[in-house]
Amino acid sequence: MSERKSEEPTVVVKLFVDKERSQVLFAESGTEFVDVLFSFLTMPLGTIVRLLSKHSKVGCLNEVYKSVEDLSTDYFQTKACKTMLLRPLNAAADLCDKLKVKIDTNPRAVYACRDTNCGSSDCTVSLVFGSICKCGKVMEYIGEWPQDPDDTAAAGSNGVFVKECLKFIITDDLQIAPASTSLMFSLLDQYGLQDPSFLEQKIVQLNSDKITSLLKRSLTTKQVLTGYYFNAPSINYDSYLYELPENLYSKQAFVHTELNNMKIIVVQTKDNLSLLYAEVGIDFIRLLFGLLSIPLGSIIRTYGKMSTNGCVDSIYRSIDGSAKGYMNPEHLTLLQSPNVAPFYGSGASNMLQAKEAFPRQKHINACFKCFKIYGFSCHARCEEEVPSIFKLKPTVVRYNNCKVWSASPNCNYRPCSAKLREVDPKLPRGGSHISVGFVKQGVQKFMVTDDLRVLPLSLTSTFQVVSESKIPSNDLVEREITLTKVQVMELLRAAVVTRNTLSSVLLPPRKKLHRLSSSLC
Predict the structure, then answer these.
(1) Is 38 inside a domain boundary?
(2) Distance CA 75, CA 289 (A)
(3) Could you write out the DSSP letters of every residue in 356-398?
């Protein structure tokens, strides 16, 4: 075990430590560490919850994630839908796979129908476990999606998200800037230090576990490097909506605009001081679950800040700020406006204007039948030496509705090619119609508690929540609400920063502030 750990990839970071103040003032590193920090912005929220679930809470998203885990697959369009939400794909996975240290362990596995007699597969593959072929069979693992050999972004001295051969300075609150003498003196002056010799220089090797620790701290504190080096406890504090900036999305465009399909019934106290739960329909659940697929950078782009306590937004601001001009321009959009992965579009991505990436396609130098048997190494079989008699008249044939170029009807003697294309895992039998969401359409109602625990609505679940609240039933009242777009936007933001999402948005402001001030006393 220790031998495996010693061989694990690491990135080198030099910390400048003020021992008297027990503080790391800043760090210096190459492109490898900075690339990893920028990759945080591409990570879906569900991935962050999965990575940090044992150590930290991300607003109410832990409850949303656990609700998906606990909910029966009968409520989802397909079994693969549950996997999509619990292990959401990263639209920038090809680039993140080039990082020296990778903290997202979600593999780029490829699945395909292994039945060589299947006439329905149309050269389709999926990147989601449990996807179904049109023939009804479950797709099986066939290999890892290969990297594009022409993409050399991480080769040699080039960086992934930043330009080559640069040294960067990273502040304690994760502001990133190219290293320079003027910046160093500016930081020393900021901390009131005239003589840099008072600082101790410590070189640390950061593996995936330690990088994950930095991600956790970036969501909860503004002293990330100090907390890591001195092993300070990472404490989760709720943020309150009235403390967060509102300048990066316009409420004016949404004012008085109601969503007809977003009617909910809330159960709260008569004095407006507590909200127990909401009775909601399928559209609200799809919106909530879709939040797990949203990249972290999209949240920061929309709302301006992840929370009042953390500093991960400093990484985002560095792109167009202190690190401007030092980013790889071809990958800039992937950080500033990250996409959701193909087929992950949802009500949440529409509201947050996170575009859906195009489905993957890949040409392989082999027939699809051999691909089903041998995976991505199948070209060795299909490209065997072809007798000259077959080289004279190459033909275009079709295999399972998939066009291939063949020199021979015998697979052993025909070099050919096929075009793999990604299929929507949400479609029950790999169909071609447009899917509508992760959760099945139906009349089923759900209960959503204040901390976004989702349960199928039943007398049992209702009785349980009311009993746990210890509030007399005659003090409770139902209130029907047709949510506006502003309220939905606020609910999505509250879900990632506070553990009282519904009451933070749906209780009257005056009572809300009174409740918050009382809780601080």
Answers:
(1) no
(2) 12
(3) BPPPPEEEESS-HHHHHHHGGGTHHHHTSPPPHHHHSS-EEEE
Whether 241 and 498 have beta carbons less than 8 Å apart is answered as yes
Same domain, 456 and 408: no
Query: What is the pLDDT confidence band of residue 194, given thresholds at 50, 70 and 90?
Result: confident
Which residues 6+ apart lie within 8 Å of 474 measured at CB? Answer: none
Domain boundary among 415, 450, 477: 415
Quick check: is 108 in a domain? no
In a domain, 259, yes or no: yes
Cβ 131 vs Cβ 78: under 8 Å: yes
In the 8-state DSSP scheme, what is residue 139?
A: P
Please, which residues have CB within 8 angstroms of residue 485's CB and are 6 or more apart in sequence? 253, 254, 257, 259, 351
Q: Quick one: 400 and 459 in the same domain?
A: no
- Average confidence (pLDDT) over 66-90: 95
Residue 477 has pLDDT above 80, yes or no: yes
Q: Residue 369 — pLDDT band, cuts 50, 70, 90?
A: confident
Q: How far apart are CA 357 and CA 344, in angstroms?
A: 9
CA distance 139 to 109: 12
Percent of the chain clearing pLDDT 70 (strictly above): 80
Question: At 435, which helix (H) or strand (E)?
Answer: none
Same domain, 508 and 468: yes
- Amino acid 85: pLDDT: 97
Q: Which residue type sits at 306?
A: M
Q: How many domains does the chain have?
A: 2
Q: Are residues 450 and 514 in the same domain?
A: yes
Helix intervals (H) in 40-78: 45-52, 61-70
Let me know whether 401 and 449 are in one domain: no
- Cα distance between residue 262 and residue 280, in whole Å: 8
Residues 445, 516, single domain; the answer is: yes
The count of other CB atoms within 10 Å of the CB of residue 65 is: 23
Interacting residues of 488 by C-beta distance below 8 A, sequence separation 6+: 259, 262, 287, 351
Does the pLDDT of residue 29 top 50, yes or no? yes
Q: What is the DSSP letter of 1?
A: -
Q: Give a yes or no: residue 410 inside a domain.
A: yes
With contact defined as beta carbons under 8 Å apart, do 132 and 428 qualify? yes
Residues 409 and 446 occupy one common structural domain: no
Task: Identify the CA nearest to 367 among candidates 405, 413, 422, 408.
Answer: 405
Question: How confident is the model over 219-233, as pLDDT tens digits?
Answer: 999 999 999 999 988
User: What pLDDT does 350 receive?
Assistant: 92
* Residue-wise pLDDT tens digits, 413-453: 354 778 899 999 998 875 555 666 899 988 789 999 999 99
Reading the block at residue 139, the tokens are 């797709």
Domain encompassing residue 508: 241-288+440-520
Residue 123 to residue 104: CA distance in whole angstroms: 28
